Amino acid sequence: MQNILYCFDENYNIQATVSMFSLLKQTNEKINFHIIHQNPKSFESLLATIEKNQNLNDCFIHEFKNMNYNFPNIKNSHVSEATYYRMFISDYITNDIDKVLYIDPDVVCLNPFNTTVAEIEKELINRNVLVGVKTEHVKNKQNYEIFERLSIDNKYFNAGVMSINLKMWKELDFKTKLLEKSKIIEDNILFWDQDVMNSEINGEYLELPPHLNQHPFEFPGSNVHFEKNTIFLHYSGKNKPWTKKGFSSPSSSFYKNIYKELFGKNFKISRFKK
To answer: Residue 25 burial by CB count (10 A; 0-12/13-18/19+): exposed, middle or buried?
Structure first.
């Protein structure tokens, strides 16, 4: 049984549904979806489009209730406070689950993933490591800025796909550590909870293979590469298939095709966001 975690709000109801459907298409075992959402009722009708899928075992939707938390650097951003929900996962996922795969709602699955993820999860447990993530490769000047801003040594990861040792997360009371860290570095936070996690973990993570968190800009215009080599395609950044600038990108065709298969209609311009 594969446990998959999503954290999102009403702004990403459709995208998350497309993402979940793409995983159900590529799995060879039953999936449990765990969702942390600020308004679960708003997602009920979309959930109905996938809940009878033969590869879905169950879907657990939790209403996010830690609303007294101050979400840093959200105002005037293209992301919402929901990006911080994953810091609170220990409050919502039961103790009988010791590992979980977190997926951003702007990720689609292009190829079978179970075997690769199982190997990562086994290594996490055997090596007693908290998370498996992909290092973000950025220009040297940006590296130095990130390292100095967050007081980290030499690595910075993207949190869009995370294999999480949940048992260890709870044993360390990692939620508390993240909340404390967010207060300490609040004035230096640019990339939301991803910055907080990087500052706290400081390079002590298991490196995921690139095809588990592939960004379109890494192979611009090369859909053949994605079709053959990519498991999770992550539409990171501002220009996504559902934005005006991202709609015409070649890699957006994957999202559009999955959307059409799920809903039986083409992805329309009326769903654009600025």
So the answer is: middle
Residue 207 has φ and ψ, to the nearest 5°, of -80, 125
CATH number for the domain formed by residue range(s) 2-216+231-236: 3.90.550.10
Q: Is the pLDDT of residue 247 over 50?
A: yes
Which residues are CB-neighbours of 138 under 8 A, at least 6 positions away?
146, 156
Torsion of CA 228, 136, 163, 66, to 10 degrees: -130
- How is the chain split into domains, by residue range? 2-216+231-236
Total count of residues recorded for the chain: 274
- Reply yes or no on whether the pLDDT at 168 is more than 90: yes
- SS3 call for 239: coil
Task: State how far Cα 204 lies from the chain centre.
Answer: 19
Tokens of residue 247, six digits: 């709609």
Please say whether the beta carbons of 101 and 5 come within 8 A: yes
State residue 262 phi and psi, 5-degree precision. Answer: -75, -50
> What is the structure's pLDDT at 259?
98
Q: What is the pLDDT of residues 82-94, one digit of tens each?
A: 999 999 999 999 9
**pLDDT(53) > 80:** yes
**Model confidence over 200-214: pLDDT tens digits?**
999 999 999 999 999
> Which tokens in the block code for residue 254?
């994957």
Is 233 within 8 Å of 251 (Cβ atoms)?
Answer: yes
Instruction: Give all strands (DSSP E) within the chain, no chain letters.
Output: 2-8, 31-37, 56-63, 99-103, 107-109, 131-135, 157-165, 206-207, 232-234
pTM: 0.94
The identity of residue 44, as a single letter, is E
